[in-house]
Amino acid sequence: MPVPILDRIPLPNLRAYTAGSVLALSICVYLATQTVKDPNWDSVHSDIKSVSNPELYNTNSSASDARTMRKFMSDVFTVLVREPFCVWVSN
């Protein structure tokens, strides 16, 4: 008799559900933007070039980002699609 058990479960109202969803999406977008800010975010860790010559791939935080806004948003979307946590939250 699972019906009486389901009747006692407190379900959130629409306002609480919307606030939780917006919070989860905001966390995912923040995570994606922080990931994309790393210059080597899309590189493979076992890349032979970075292992053989690490001074070429120095992550200097004072260097300016030469990406356009369109490329930046494309990279953020790519992280949102690839990151397991963000995929789980967006479903």
Write structural notes for this entry.
It is a single chain. With 91 residues, the chain is an all-alpha fold. It has a domain at 66-91. It is built from five helices and no strands. The chain has helices spanning 2-8, 14-36, 48-52, 69-82, 84-90. Helix 2 crosses helix 4. The model is unreliable at 45-50 (pLDDT under 50).
Task: State the shape.
Answer: elongated
- Please report the number of helical segments: 5
Oligomer status = single chain
Whole-Å distance between the termini? Answer: 29 Å
Q: What is the compact description of this entry?
A:
By secondary structure, the chain is mostly helical. It has helices at 2-8, 14-36, 48-52, 69-82, 84-90.
What is the topological layout?
Blueprint: H1 2-8, H2 14-36, H3 48-52, H4 69-82, H5 84-90
Helix pairs in contact: 2-4, 2-5
Features:
single chain; about 90 residues; mainly alpha; elongated
